[in-house]
Predict the structure.
Amino acid sequence: MKIPKSQQSNILRVLEKVTRNRYRLLLVSIIGSAYSALSILRHRHFSSSAFDLGIFDQVIWLYSRFEAPYSTIRANRLDENILGDHFHPILILLAPLYWLTNTVEALLVAQAFLFAIAIFPIFFFTRKRLGTPAAYMFSVSYALFWGVQRAVEFDFHEIALAVPLIAWSIYFVDEKRWRAYYFCIGLLFLTKEDLSLLVIFLGFYLVTLKEFKRGLLTSLAGALWFVAVMRLFIPYFAGDGNYHYWTYIQFGPNFLAAARTIVKNPLLAARELFLPAEKLHTYFLVFAPFLCFSFLSPLFILMIPLLVERFLSAQPLYWTTGFHYTAAISPIVAMASADGLSKIVRLINNKRLRTAVIIASSAVVLTVNTIMLPKLPLGQLMNPNYWRLSKSDLTGREALLLIPSTASVAAQGTVLPHLSHRKYIYFMPYNLVSLPDADYIIACKHLGLHPYPSAVELEGYLASQQAKGYSKIFDKEDWIIMRK
């Protein structure tokens, strides 16, 4: 069969583009594979958890079956639509993964490559300002950045979809590719409710670039969407009309009350942004690996809503360097730092000296991020034992096979994401007053015991269930399964 000339030329253009980007594709493949290995091995060592891998796995599995996302894990309720918790309908796009493979690891691999794909816009944005060698060094530095690694390590979160969208949005603005930019903004709206605030500041960033009309349109769209999601969509799906993640109680019970408090007492807000000292430590770790070049770029505007939202919160978990809370800001830090460095070297008239400063500075950024590697999650891949499943891991996998895929299950948090491809699965202990008990209970005494403080309390719960009529069908290597 002869291929028409027009199609031949299109194929040649695609092949030419792939060839031109082969090294970037190789880099993304290596980083994505490393991220995948980290998260999959962590999961197989039973270190993943119900919050958030189990929740998201159940929700996306339900989407793949064309069912509403009623998660039974988060609050052990059958009537909780997860869109009333956070608004992230974009997760529907991941449902086809479960048509191809019926395993939670597919979600972990997808997340790994979503983070890795952000390398492309970071590379192109940096190359335009600093040249190809610096672009590779900044791209690898982003890939090794602790904020990205912590997010990859911490189960799965919808913010994985936001990271490449944020990076591509910045790149498309830089290239004045407005249709692609608006497409990214539209997807950001569907990723998480608080990203509307980031979109508002994207509008402010456009204003600094003298794109006044587009900037005002972007900010207005972000503000309107934020109000709609917070006042209409989430309350509708939540059923009780409430938003459950208000953590700014030191300022007031709601957004308007908090705004009034901050206007009346701005020093209170300033103090809350930087105290206690743990916040300063996290600030340092966000900016220092890229030598604080980001302070010199107008892109710093985009960090403001992410930093304020996080560090004004009364929830101490947000101030730490753990979990996924630094993920969204990671591509912005990398791209803003590249832009900031470019503004410094523009002051150097000597071309050779300018090139030397770019290479040296980029090399220092890469070195700093590389030096931190052994103490970060990816450093675990250098340990041969991390690649081996322990005797308990193998026993756990043996135990999981005894639970039918259609049965309802109660399990502790570290076991739940291994069984969350089902409609009825509960976080143990659970309180289902008007619902039947689960068909099976599975537990392991030496894994993470949350919410139990020790194995003694876990054993007490299991004993109480056995007294209610459950029979033990598996007891090996501290793994226990009981059947109703």
